[in-house]
Write a structure and sequence with these properties.
The chain is α+β, with helices and mostly antiparallel strands. It has one domain. The chain has one helix at residues 29-78; strands spanning 87-92, 95-100, 107-114, 127-135, 145-153, 160-162, 167-169, 173-181. A four-stranded antiparallel β-sheet has the order 3-4-5-8, with helices on one face. Strand 6 (160-162) and strand 7 form a beta hairpin. The longest helix is centred in the first third of the chain and has 50 residues, at 29-78. The radius of gyration is 35 Å and the shape is rod-shaped.
Length: 184
């Protein structure tokens, strides 16, 4: 008489009838529910982070565009030319930038409804920009002029510039820099 070891080996020689223990063949209902809970919680967390990521991308694009607009306004101010040696003019986005050698009143230029490339647009109100010439260049000895260039977004909020403290209100973000310039 053969002793059955519980391994499922049959009585016929050479043929194995090995059976896996039934506990190893499937997951229990508790394990399946627990795994689904973990997966659904993880997916919900990822979906919850999507708006934050999209907002960060939009803000980064607007910051990069603002830096480009500040650079373009600065270049336009520094490239201003004169026909009489005293009054200097250049154009940025369809508006004249002017300053006078030897002092004079401060001047302010403001652009609204700029798109991300710095050109005025009617449909893409993304940026508002401002150039405030604080000090006009001096003559003898030649002294540099000083200006503040600032860009705020979004333009849809109609941000307002306050010269006294050089800040924007009603803006989600802004970039402000001060420059010195000499006439060519």
């Amino acid at each position: 008489m053969k002793k059955d070891l519980g391994l499922g080996i049959g009585d016929r020689p050479g043929i194995s009838n090995f059976r896996f223990p039934t506990l190893l063949l499937a997951f229990s209902l508790v394990e399946v529910v627990l795994a689904l809970g973990i997966v659904s919680f993880s997916l919900l967390a990822v979906v919850g982070l999507l708006p934050v990521g999209l907002r960060s991308i939009k803000n980064a694009n607007e910051q990069a565009a603002a830096a480009n607009v500040v650079g373009a306004i600065s270049a336009a101010l520094r490239a201003a030319s004169s026909t009489d040696g005293t009054n200097f003019t250049n154009t940025f986005s369809g508006e004249n930038i002017t300053y006078r050698i030897g002092g004079g009143n401060a001047s302010t230029n403001k652009w609204t409804n700029l798109d991300l490339s710095g050109t005025p647009g009617t449909s893409a109100k993304r940026l508002s920009a401002l150039l405030e010439i604080v000090n006009q260049p001096g003559t003898n000895p030649p002294t540099p002029g000083r200006a503040v260039i600032s860009v705020a977004w979004p333009a849809q909020a109609d941000p307002e510039w306050h010269s006294a403290n050089q800040t924007w209100t009603k803006a989600e973000g802004s970039l402000t820099t001060a420059i010195q310039f000499l006439p060519k």
